[in-house]
Amino acid sequence: EAVVRWQRQSLNAEAEGRLPPPPPRNVNMTALYSMSTSLSRTTSMLMTPLSVSLPFLSEEASSMESPVVRDEVLALMADHETVVKLGRGYRSFDPAGKIAYLDELESIKERWRIFYARVRLMGALSPELIVDGRAVVEAIGFPSVRQFHAAMDEVHRQMR
């Protein structure tokens, strides 16, 4: 929760032209950096045409590697990256633009939720991804992925 609160304070400071506050003391910034590096490697691997498998799918999920699934996830990743890049200018958005941005974030989150729910129902989700996801949220101070998502929802609600 401290990381989400810090992120919200940082976004507000940036929007107001102030310096962001320092990160919380109990957050392992090295672990956060390491996770972001790992995520960047995964993203670049997925975006490379030579990539044969989707790393978040289990090895038994060969049926999930269809062009339709690959196109869906690559489009979702590209849209997600576009929204993240757009968010860098959040402080310059007018009030309606900020709401539109948050709506788009919500749309991307819902698309990911639906995609992962389908993959999970098919039993095709990589166990390593589940373990890694839990490790990420624990490293930033959340006892569960569900609590992380609830905290992010609260931050977005407050930003509205």
Describe this structure in words.
- By secondary structure, the protein is an all-alpha fold.
- The protein has 6 helices and no strands.
- It has helices at 2-15, 29-47, 67-87, 95-121, 127-139, 145-159.
- Helix 3 (67-87) runs antiparallel to helix 4.
Shape: globular
Largest sheet: none
- As a percent range, the share of helical residues equals 55-70%
Instruction: Name the beta content range.
Output: under 5%
- Helices, by number, come to 6
**Class by SSE composition:** mainly alpha
* Number of E-type strands: 0
Radius of gyration, CA atoms, in whole angstroms:
17 Å
- List SSEs in N-to-C order: HHHHHH
Low-confidence stretches: 40-53
Ends distance: 19 Å
Mean pLDDT over the residues: 75
Please give a quick description of this structure:
The protein is mainly alpha-helical.
Relevant terms:
160 residues; mainly alpha
Chart the SSEs and their pairings.
Blueprint: H1 2-15, H2 29-47, H3 67-87, H4 95-121, H5 127-139, H6 145-159
